[in-house]
């Protein structure tokens, strides 16, 4: 049986998140469905943010991450 993805928790990151260089950022998302949904994150310019879990805390945002 296939069950469409459903985001059950997105924390404060369900929309845009602006972070200044040197600040910390927390990304969190929990989704249900079958098959199990994969969560991915992208920057405003479309480049992926490489996180292999549904949530992560990124410490000290650098210029390479904020382009």
From TrEMBL:
Transmembrane segments: none annotated. It comes from the Eukaryota. GO terms for cellular component: neuron projection. The keyword Nucleotide-binding does not apply. Keywords: Disulfide bond, Immunoglobulin domain, Repeat. Gene3D superfamilies: Immunoglobulins (2.60.40.10). Residues 5-67 form the Ig-like domain. SUPFAM superfamilies: Immunoglobulin (SSF48726). Pfam families: Ig_3. The keyword Disulfide bond applies. PANTHER family: CTX-RELATED TYPE I TRANSMEMBRANE PROTEIN (PTHR12231), DPR-INTERACTING PROTEIN GAMMA (PTHR12231:SF271). This is Ig-like domain-containing protein. It comes from Frieseomelitta varia.
């Amino acid at each position: 049986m296939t069950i469409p993805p459903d985001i059950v928790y997105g924390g404060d990151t369900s929309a845009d998140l602006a972070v200044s260089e040197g600040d910390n950022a927390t990304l969190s998302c929990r989704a249900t469905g079958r098959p199990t949904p994969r969560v991915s994150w992208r920057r405003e310019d479309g480049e992926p943010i490489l996180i292999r879990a549904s949530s992560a805390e990124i410490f000290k945002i650098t210029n390479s991450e904020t382009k």
